[in-house]
Write the structure tokens for this entry.
Amino acid sequence: MDKIKISTAQFEAKNADKTYNLSVIEKLAKKASEEGSDVIAFHECSITGYTFARHLNKEQMLDLAEFVPNGESTQKLIEIAAKYNIVILAGLFEKDKNDNLYKPYICVDKNGLIAKHHKIHPFINPYLTPGKGYTIFEINGWKCGILICYDNNIIENVRATTLLGANIIFMPHVTMCTPSTRPGAGFVDPKLWQKRETDPTSLRLEFDGIKGRAWLMKWLPARAYDNGIYAVFSNPIGMDDDQLKNGCSMIIDPFGDILAECRSFDDTFVTATITSEKLFNAGGSRYIKARRPDLYRDILGEDHNSEQKVAWLNDAY
């Protein structure tokens, strides 16, 4: 596999304003292409907006959602990819002819749709249908996978995607800075975002603390390290509906080291060069070979009733 340059972006999306959001995607894709990137990845539901969907009924969701790949937004994304000769990954809401709703993350290039992953563990709206499998595809000879936000919290999903051949896993999120039972978690006051130019220090302390980046660092590098893969994490910056998000879009290598990370409050991206040598030199590749599935095949395969509770969506947490 040849070297590949991947960018991961962060920006402040607007609720249901696909025209605006796609304009930002185009601006950042253009710049990334001019700087030599082969790929740019955006956050979960970057085309439509995300958190506001918790308030929508089914008819409103169907109005917001589109067909993929024939819908207007996917076709616009393909147009942008062709215009700047760059692979683009972004998210939206999808509907089918039977009015089923999904939350996909799609990958396109100048020739059209490359891949589509339905979120396995959706929760932002009760009318969303969970995905039923994993997604493996190729970009420039690299085997890639997609896991959306909560999908990555279940470690079996990351291992399964790796075992199916993924060397790079795109991990689009809208996360951090929400309440939970975890000590120190909670919302960040939107007033700090409004004062980010006059008081960046207070905002950065909240963003980097246990509400935000410090929590992310407890688990995200481990996903890359344990599985010996590159993790491409994308997350919005600024207000997502009424919640403030802290960005931190980053690329992590198979050693669990951060290669590049967005550290500003701006709509921006960072880029890293991905090389195949690390895949074989990192410990994760050895650990996968040393597995003993005969010991835990039956344990992992036991019947289990999946129960998913998202603390910040509940009145009590």
